[in-house]
Amino acid sequence: MTGDWARYWRAADRPLEAMHAHFERHVYHRHSHDAYSFGVTEDGAQTFRCRGAAHTSAAGMVMAFNPDDPHDGRAVDALGFTYRIVHIGPEVVADVLGDGAAAGLPLFPRPVLHSRVLAGALRRLHRDLLDRASALRRDESLADAVLAMGGLGAARPVRPRTAPSRRDSARIVARAREVLDSTPEADADLGTLAAAAGRSRHAVYRAFHQVYGIAPSDYQRERRLRRARRLIAEGTAPGDAAAASGFADQSHLNRWFRRYYGITPGVYARGTSDAAGSR
């Protein structure tokens, strides 16, 4: 019996797909994608042919395929390999790079790269895509991964222009905040914030870091937690407060509530009741 397994995720609104898989017997027929394909090997090793040569990707190594790069793939031995791979359409890469894409999209001359930074960025992106991270967090991880790949692995590195002035960043953040503050429960993404600010996705991302020192997703999560905390203080059950504040479920709220405040929503709710009863 084969030990092969795979989990797959696909965006509904843009060319962005991700897979986490373990293959022992599966052998990829020679093929290509109409997207960039970035993968990181987690365990074992896989071998493949690409651009006329054989390559091996072992644990911690990163694979980088340009659009229309023919390649195959199989396990090196019977133990198989586990890896994460993401397929990103060229238009998504261009959108992330913004002004930096004016010089042309990145090209990757080496199908296998050795970089802890790239491997770490890809792991974070995959986990955020395949798990239930917010739309903002997925966009931020995507930007981090694309920028890391374009800056460290490409033959023609491309980077966005330098950060905007603090005054410009303040204007960008103010417009984006209107969206996040008015509907903290809505699953807004960087595209929504960029449209409100009239700037690129990455400009919004950089502006939040420059003004607040945190990512837009952190700002959104904090607003959601404040709303949930207020609702619980008013007597709303934690599960209902989680749904009304934009959390996936009560366990999701519990996890972040404790990380931010050191207690669970239940403890906070009981504390409010005790305080009311002591008057």
From TrEMBL:
PROSITE patterns, alphabetized: HTH_ARAC_FAMILY_2
UniProt KW Transcription keyword: yes
A UniProt-annotated Pfam family: HTH_18
Source species, domain of life: Bacteria
Single Gene Ontology MF annotation: sequence-specific DNA binding
InterPro entries, A to Z: AraC-bd (IPR003313), AraC_XylS_family_regulators (IPR050204), Homeodomain-like_sf (IPR009057), HTH-like (IPR037923), HTH_AraC (IPR018060)
Keywords for this protein: DNA-binding, Transcription, Transcription regulation
Protein name: AraC-like DNA-binding protein
Organism: Murinocardiopsis flavida
